[in-house]
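Sample intake sheet
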Amino acid sequence: MHRAVGMVACPSCGQRTAERIGAIYSTAGQKDAGGKSIDDEAALWRCRECFLLFRHPALPQEELNSFYVTGSRPGWSYQPALRTDWQTAKHLIHSVLGRGTVVDIGCFDGTFLAQLGSSYEKYGVEPNEKARSAAREKGIHILARDVEEFCSLGRQYDIIVAFDVVEHFADPLGLLVKLERSLAPRGLIILSSGNADALPWRLMKGRYWYCSLPDHVSFISPPWVRQAARKSNLTVISMTRISHAITRFRYLQVVAGFMMSAIYLISPHLIRMLRKIKKAVTAGRIAMDEFAPPVWRGVKDHLLVVCEKK
């Protein structure tokens, strides 16, 4: 199959070496002023220069920023025990830093920081006003509303964490460079995001559920991390493939996700029909998007990355 190459510039490195991987299927219900789905023309592209996968066209950054300030999504709030990346990061922080400063970029309501204990100075960066208030109630010091404001403070911190953040930035390399400047010598950056090298991504391409969320615009992988770290004065300490959340009956969920995704690849309309039947049986008690790609739960489709400042 012919793939368009060179038509679109990578939003991170600027090179025109990107190839079109495939259409991104709309999450439906997300309409512009003319009633057209905002994802009707979106596609997944891969930059051959820096290995970043990205959505094009993407929503303007101003619209994304407005969404983060005023919007919310049920998936933004978690129980700490159910987050694989949070638990791993918590144990790492406790093992390498007895006391010190920890900053959470996109801390939302401060739940991750709150579980670290009283030995740390805990700071957050968060655009959402209600979430900032909730974080303050947990004893989190809110430093800024966004990364630009945070970096302008000119301070350095021992550890910076960024969970589910990278995918919201059109230029994730630029984000990493800015965060490195706010790290103390030998400080750590711990980040998690979707892994575009994972098998489900390779099978589903633009139809993978993670791509269908309109505020997800960049998708990283181990090759991207290694190159970005070199350009950011960072050393990669570890990269771990993880499931986003700890679930019961994980292997059953992996198999079920594979089957639903295979059906979706063959016939998205069949998945829509099955969802309509389920909704009718439950009398509409289950909220679902009839058009959205099925979520493949339990599979290791995320990366947890730890980098150290040189």
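Comment: The two ends are 43 Å apart (CA to CA). Residues 28-38 have pLDDT under 50 and may be disordered.
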